[in-house]
Design goal:
Order of helices and strands: EEEHHHHHHHHHHHHEEEHHHHH
Largest sheet: 3 strands, antiparallel
Radius of gyration: 27 Å
CATH class of the largest domain: Mainly Alpha
Strand order of the largest sheet: 1-2-3
Distance between the termini: 61 Å
Structural class: mainly alpha
Number of domains: 3
CATH superfamily of the largest domain: Intergrase catalytic core
Low-confidence stretches: 80-92, 377-387
Number of helices: 17
Strand content: 5-15%
CATH architecture of the largest domain: Orthogonal Bundle
Number of strands: 6
Mean pLDDT: 85
CATH topology of the largest domain: hpI Integrase, Chain A
Length: about 400
């Protein structure tokens, strides 16, 4: 590693490094210069520490972290005026709310609007309410959160109810925590959601470590919940079950459910896509980069199945007739009322599973199925992932569906 040490004519050492372009906005100088005395070992050690501070400042700048935090990493190279100005400002703290706000801002370009919304609810509602319930404040400094708090935190989230159950949606989380023992097992959040919450907490505390608010992330020692078989948590609907479902919902919802079963789109994507003609073929387009989707691979086109074409001109009318939340709730409730086989493992998302499962059973190329689904990794569809299939190739696969 380059030390950027220079020896002076007086046999002392100084650190001289050109300011990286990522940090030019934080200093009027073009070079960082610091005198380091005559001891070569001490000078080398100090130079290596300077290098680390500069590298961290570059990373923080890329993440969009606030200016004062970055200036803190560069304080050895800044003039007295800048240092005093920084000292007069409000000190940077590692409070839960401040860190979660900074963390979400740093992730803004990497995650979808839905994931941002869910993470904000978790950090700003779930975490703050539970930590206050555990005897801390609703905005504790992360440095005072102990391992025992994290174990109790995990114990509580495993008992929380699902957010889509009406009687709990109208309750404040603080009131829900007072009645955890009254929540039925079937109403509790899934193991998958519990593990997701633990991972989100780990990520936030890792961010706190990077900003030097923590020396160790205790949440990394909190074990995830064990699952019997992750693949069995959600099951696809059969053709017969789909027909039962369609017959039981209102006509304006039927077409939307048929679209989901014949495209494999996520529910959020159904409400973000446009119908466009590509190479002479009608497609559901998810190519608008101004719309946030789950992953980069989610930006794609899906040919309209021939069964859907007769009503495609009224697509927007069908979609405007019901909200995504209402469609999901009605579908899940209807599946339960129909008492379908293993209905507890079936929901609106089962239509996406149906799409993928049926295509794989019909021998479709798993790489094309992966592209149609917008999967970020090909392992999710059992084969090597590739892109660039023609619209006609995609349509041929979609038309394999009944």
């Amino acid at each position: 590693m380059k030390t950027y040490l220079e020896k002076t004519k007086h046999n002392t050492f100084k650190y001289v490094r050109r300011v990286p372009k990522e940090l030019l906005e934080f200093t009027p100088n073009r070079r960082f210069r610091v005198s380091l005395g005559s001891n070569i070992l001490e000078a080398t050690q100090q130079a290596l520490e300077f290098n680390m501070s500069i590298d961290e400042a570059i990373q923080l700048s890329a993440l969009g972290v606030d200016r004062d935090t970055i200036l803190g990493k560069l304080e050895h190279f800044l003039g007295k005026e800048t240092a005093n100005s920084k000292a007069n400002k409000e000190p940077i703290t590692g409070t839960l709310k401040k860190l979660s706000s900074e963390y979400l801002s740093s992730q803004e370009d990497n995650i979808s609007a839905e994931e941002t919304r869910d993470k904000r609810y978790f950090y700003e509602v779930v975490c703050t309410t539970i930590f206050e319930h555990l005897g801390l404040s609703n905005n504790p400094d992360v440095a005072i959160i102990e391992y025992k708090h994290l174990l109790e935190f995990k114990s509580i989230i495993t008992q929380l109810p699902k957010r889509n159950i009406q009687r709990y949606r109208v309750m404040l989380l603080d009131d829900i925590l007072k009645h955890l023992s009254d929540i039925n097992d079937e109403d509790k959040i899934s193991v998958r959601t519990v593990n997701k919450y633990i991972k989100w907490l780990r990520a936030l505390l890792n961010f706190a470590m990077m900003l030097k608010h923590l020396e160790v992330n205790l949440a990394n020692s909190i074990p995830l919940q064990k699952t019997i078989n992750e693949k069995l948590q959600r099951l696809p609907l059969s053709d017969e079950e789909l027909q039962q479902l369609l017959a039981a919902v209102k006509p304006e919802m039927q077409y939307l459910l048929q679209i989901l079963s014949l495209t494999g789109m996520r529910l959020s994507e159904l409400y973000k896509c446009k119908v466009e003609e590509v190479d002479g073929i009608q497609c559901f387009s998810l190519l608008d980069k101004s719309v946030k989707l789950k992953t980069k691979s989610s930006y794609r086109i899906i040919p309209v199945h021939s069964y859907l074409l007769p009503q495609i001109d009224s697509f927007n009318q069908h979609r405007d007739g019901t909200t995504s939340n209402n469609l999901a709730r009605v579908t899940s409730n209807t599946i339960k009322l129909l008492k379908l086989h293993q209905s507890e493992k079936k929901s609106l998302y089962s239509l996406r599973h149906k799409f993928a499962t049926e295509l794989m059973q019909k021998g479709a190329d798993s790489s094309i199925v992966s592209e149609l689904l917008g999967h970020a990794h090909s392992t999710m569809t059992l084969s090597r992932y590739s892109t660039g299939f023609s619209v006609r190739q995609l349509r041929e696969v979609v038309e394999l569906l009944n």
